Amino acid sequence: MIPLAAAPTDRPAEIPDPEDTVTTTQDAADVAADATAGGWAAVCRLDQLVPERGAAALLRRADGAPFQVAVFRLLDDSVHAVQQLDPYAAANVMSRGIVGTRGEEPTVASPVYKQVFALRTGECLESGGKTPKAGLGAHLEAFPAEVRDGVVHVQVT
Amino acid sequence: MFASGNSTLTVRSRWLPSVEDMSSEPPTSSTRHVVVVGGGMVAQRFVEALRSRDTDGTWRISVFAEEPRKPYDRVGLTRYFEVRDAEELTLGDPALWDDPLVTLHRDCKVEKIDREQRTVTDRLGRVHAYDELVLATGSNAAMPPIPGNDLPGVFVYRTIDDVAELRGWVEAKREAGRVETRGGVVEKPVRGAVIGGGLLGLEAAGALKALGAQATVIEFGTHLMGVQCDLGGGQALKRLINDKGISVRPETATKEMKPHRRTGHVGRLDFNDGGRLDVDVVVVATGVRPRDELARSAGLEMGERGGAVVDLTCRTEDPNVWAIGEVACIEGRCLGLVAPGNTMAEVVVDRLLGGQAEFPGADTATKLKLSGVDVASFGDAHGRTEDCVEVVWADPTAGVYKKLVLSDDAKTLLGGVFVGDATPYATLRPMLGAELPGDPAAFLLPEGAGNAPDIELPDEANVCSCNNVSAGTIRGAVTDHGCTSVGDVKSCTKAGTTCGACLPLVKKITETEMTRAGIEVSNALCEHFEMTRAQLFDAVRVSELHSFSDIIERFGVVPEGATSAGRGCDICKPVVASILASQGNGHILSGEQSTLQDTNDHMLANMQKDGTYSVVPRVPGGEITPEGLIVIGEVAKDFGLYTKITGGQRIDMFGARVEQLPDIWKRLVDAGFESGHAYGKSLRTVKSCVGSTWCRYGVQDSVGMAVELELRYRGLRSPHKLKLGVSGCARECAEARGKDVGVIATDKGWNLYVAGNGGQTPKHAQLLAEDLDSETLLRTIDRFLMLYIRTADRLQRTAPWAEEYEGGLEAIRQVIMEDSLGIADDLDAAMAAHVGAYEDEWKAVLEDPDKLARFGSFVNAPTTPDPSLAYVAERGQKRPATAEEIAAGPDGPVDPALAGPVLVTGPTLEVRA
Ligand SMILES: Cc1cc2nc3c(=O)[nH]c(=O)nc-3n(C[C@H](O)[C@H](O)[C@H](O)COP(=O)(O)OP(=O)(O)OC[C@H]3O[C@@H](n4cnc5c(N)ncnc54)[C@H](O)[C@@H]3O)c2cc1C
Ligand code: SF4
Ligand code: FES
């Protein structure tokens, strides 16, 4: 191993706190939503999301641990949230997958190895013969998500 | 097919002696020793069959080959002019020769057989004992006793060395024919003649044409291919051959070959009818003579026209000596085709293993392998069977002649001849001796005109005569051996791997069987589109649709009970994205298009395993200034990126986070760089050697050409990635033949090779055109790429595409060089539109706040780095930490400094020396 001399980082500095939803960034600062009980957090304005694409959001779990979710907006302006962690790649990338449908079911495909997940439930519909990385489940965790007054809210407990 | 009655025999042997490992162990008591004399195609089949069937290893095999190489595909000999590489003619799996039970003695002719002692003596005087001896010495090209037949410039056409010498001769003559005049360089054409108008002679004439020489075929009989064709067929064939620019002189006997007064090389042919023809090169293709000298001196019985006489088990009168292939005289004749030879090899293998196989009779079906001239015949093509009836379809203007020979009740198929259109051949040949369903004439009508009944071949029908594969074997490959494509079936059964004439039928049977077995042969892209990529490409082009929503609404599949076709998936969306991009639809991240882009295109960078990206600026032709190198180095340093030189002669910077991408691009774009499209299924790089500007051997400026090509095709989206290469001379330092398009400089211009690739199944690119000037080169590549983009399947690289394109590379050549489909203008216009509309995708994002907004790490914290990223240092740079390293935490090897937001000063690495 090589000794490294570098400034330590102050990360994670800018995690918005779901309890007061006072986000520290300009974009999210516009979000005027109130914190709601039960772990609901305001994430962004609906118009910040591109239909049929995802975006990552940095939230906290009830125990205060930082947690990444992938939020998707569909053509009908409904929103869905699943964990950002791709269990088959162990990387935080789900928001960057392609959105589509299987039958009537809206889906997102992993951008890494192309597993297909149901957006509403997080269920893995196609594993492509792969198994998840050690310690990770086959399906995604899905989170309640809704739009209130043009602001996307996600509930993480 | 090449049988010939007359003439003496000239043994043309020019092998250089070489030292060879001769260690052959003495036979142990349990293994017996079979010696094979001759290392040709049939010997290869013999060894292959014995090794695959003799699973207990009861036989040890020694093969003595006079030629200095492994057995090769003699049937494909003419391909040598195209591939220019003897290796590409290799037969079967080369691992066969590494088998410990197989010893191949190359360049090691057997001189003598002692049947009493059961030994053979090789040319080095060494004596080898055998238990069984198999003669597979093949044939020699016959050389008729025409005075002057030993002049320099007179060739036969049998071995790799023959064709290599022929090519060298023609090229030397062409060089010698270049004269400088006041008006510029004038090239005198090289005049070639082929004596003999059979299958082989026509192939040789085609080869002469391909080498840029003129060709005249001298035929003794009344018409070409007299063995296979009747007069009507021969005449239709003459028209087709003339159309290829080859002259034919039938009913002509050659009296003498005269030397040129000055050079002493062959210079003129004198004919019996008083005519004469000036020539620079002569190929003699008047038939073959069995190489039976060994058998003869061993006192074995000889056939009337030579050949070692064998019975139906392929055994000679000596119970321990067998003969197979062209040297065997079976049922009273020698057979000049590979299929019966292979059958004989299988018969002897069966006998050696205690079986009872017998030679079932020869399949003498043949197909001419001369591109653009379709000729095939099988069975009793001349209608010599008593009371037979003939059904003929002739269209003299089109040069089409088709004939079926049937039994007297017009039902049982006895034979056939096809000239100009051999499509029925593949289906009908296996029906030889069987009753045809329906009206036989229906099979002869032009395709589409009559409804030829669908023939369901019986299992025992022989589909591939070269490899003796029946319809049942092909079906079994699908049902019992899990084959799910023609490629699988080919490697499993060997069907279609020799002359290829049976391939259409192999494909049909395979697909029918797959459907029957419930294996889907659907060409559908995915559940949303029933079309192939090529069909969708055309549909989108013709309908002029520009958005995915419109395309799926118009062409998508609406499942039963549903009201719409849905919203696509990770398969069809990137395909549509690529199609739209190839047809010029603006920036790939604009509007709805941004939702279609696959992982890498979506971020204009390549996602790596930890979700970060790598960034590759374009370095056209691999040419870069010192200032450019410094900029890249500084960017990498400032953003803390891992750097690596790519195989495509540029620099890849790894570990960039989403939110860093725009800043990195800005630095690069400001310094004059642009996107290298390393993320796209699109042109990647044009690799080049340094070429004539610096290299002592270079004959053209390969870097200049590479830069021009890269700037022309940059950003061109395609079904798969595209790589090009340019070498400055024939030494090929740029490895251009491993590319989709390879350009190699000649002293007259550029040779163009296409459809090669590296990767999992490497393929050498094949020669498409020679000595092109730069303008023609660009136009030809334009069309090649556009044709590929329009017609290839999803994720199909150029090599499999060219292989599967109907008619293969030759058909592709005709489309782009001779405009055989009338679409050349269209292809040119499409490429011009691409070149005109090019913009740097990075710069366009930097100029558009809407697009820029998508490059934040989190929608609620766009500048916060992904907190989960972790790195360790290795060899002086960073790399993603493994799960174990992450678990060990910052007290372990994971270094938070490497992952953090990068200070402009950058984390410095102290590297221990
Ligand atoms: C240009 C061309 C095109 C052809 N096209 C077709 C076609 O389309 N369809 C078809 O069916 N057939 C075709 N043929 C014929 C086909 O190639 C032969 O039928 C086939 O190669 C015969 O195989 P073989 O093993 O019997 O003989 P060969 O392949 O000739 O092999 C015999 C080998 O034995 C070696 N040998 C001879 N004597 C000795 C010795 N004493 N010691 C050691 N080695 C010895 C020879 O050097 C030779 O390498 C074509 C042939 C040519 C030349
Ligand atoms: S291919 Fe020729 S020109 Fe290019 S570097 Fe090699 S020797 Fe020189
Ligand atoms: S018939 Fe020649 S390869 Fe099948």
From TrEMBL, chain A:
It comes from the Bacteria. Residues 1-22 are annotated as: Disordered. CDD domains: Rieske_NirD. Pfam families: Rieske_2 (PF13806). The keyword Disulfide bond does not apply. PANTHER family: NITRITE REDUCTASE (NADH) SMALL SUBUNIT (PTHR40562:SF1), PTHR40562. This is Nitrite reductase (NAD(P)H) small subunit.
